[in-house]
Design goal:
about 350 residues, mainly alpha, disordered C terminus, 13 helices, elongated
Length: about 350
């Protein structure tokens, strides 16, 4: 439940955040410097955001499923610890444990650090052997995972199934209240109940999924509890993604003439207010700059002269048309002068 909560928190803000970043990057790459970019609220901007948002959600959904599968593989299982296939019988399990115990026994460790590591690893191998050689515990482990080692007051298959179903109940109750996809959760509940209560593995797992994984990929075969963990994660993230995909997938209504005119009027009023605020702020800044010379006529005249020179040098003479006109004028006055004596207007 905690991983689902973290996933939900990530889904609430990451897609919108990443969509904004990608859209800004897209405009920075595809639109040349100086060209206007689509403004928020315009049809072109909304179309681009809709497409980017859909792509981000789909990619994030695939990543969430891949991440869940990655953590399942990283956690491993008792069969991988003993380096045995998932259909190994009791004789093979005991034989492999004896061989590994002879290699990794703590008494063979040289340093104290190696002894501590070997002791932890030996205890893990012993737990794997004890669990897989016990018919009841192996049934429970294959369906509920290593959590069964911490369950108390359980001795029969019925006890394990009861405790396991009780631990899975909050997932369906909470998710159904939030996501209202009752039919899918009922189907998932039926699959989980069938997987947990039958003495054999699910035919979908043994005849479809695991053969596909082992034939076409390097992925190890899944145990029932690993399959159910991935199913929970996939369903949970799928419904979150579907909830976020619904608004952008819905076709936006075409704006009418009246709504477009109202939007333009609103934009004009906003620009007018921004211009007024800019003018007021500029006046305040100018007043602050002039405060030191107020009452000093000579200082004011000197400042006016310097401002005029700055405007001529940095504004008027930097204009391309003015520079071209000055260049043509100088060329006319220097007709007949040596080529090396001709100079361009200094920049």
């Amino acid at each position: 439940m905690s991983s689902n909560l973290l996933s939900y928190v990530g889904w609430t803000f990451l897609p919108n955040l990443v969509t904004g970043w990608i859209q800004s990057l897209y405009y920075g790459i595809t639109i040349r410097a100086g060209d206007p970019k689509p403004q928020p609220g315009t049809p072109r901007y909304l179309k681009h955001r809709r497409r980017i948002h859909i792509a981000v959600i789909v990619i994030y959904l695939l990543y969430a499923i891949y991440e869940a599968d990655y953590w399942v593989r990283q956690s491993g299982d008792f069969f991988q610890d003993l380096n045995l296939p998932i259909d190994a019988d009791e004789r093979k399990i005991k034989s492999r444990f004896r061989r590994l115990a002879a290699i990794h026994h703590p008494d063979k460790a040289v340093s104290p650090e190696d002894h501590a590591f070997a002791e932890i690893y030996f205890v893990k191998l012993k737990s794997a052997q004890d669990t897989l050689t016990d018919t009841t515990k192996r049934f429970a482990y294959e369906r509920f995972g290593p959590d069964i080692l911490s369950w108390q007051h359980v001795s029969s298959i019925r006890d394990y199934i009861t405790v396991g179903l009780q631990s899975s109940a909050p997932l369906y109750a909470g998710s159904a209240l939030v996501m209202w996809r009752y039919l899918v959760f009922v189907c998932l509940g039926i699959v989980e109940y069938h997987t947990l209560t039958r003495p054999y593995w699910s035919p979908f797992l043994t005849k479809v999924l695991n053969p596909l994984l082992t034939t076409f990929t390097s992925h190890p075969p899944l145990l029932p509890f690993q399959f159910l963990a991935l199913a929970h994660k996939a369903v949970f993230t799928f419904f979150i993604a579907l909830g976020q995909l619904s608004p952008p997938l819905a076709r936006p209504n075409q704006p009418t003439t009246s709504s477009s005119s109202a939007f333009d009027e609103q934009q004009l009023q906003r620009l007018e207010q921004m211009a007024m605020n800019t003018e007021i702020e500029s006046g305040r800044l100018l007043g602050l700059e002039m405060a030191p010379v107020l009452g000093d006529e000579a200082a004011q005249n000197d400042m006016k002269r310097k401002v005029s020179e700055w405007l001529v040098q940095n504004t008027i003479r930097s204009d391309p048309e003015v520079r071209d006109a000055i260049g043509r004028f100088r060329q006319k006055r220097r007709v007949g002068a040596p080529t090396g004596a001709r100079q361009s207007v200094p920049s």
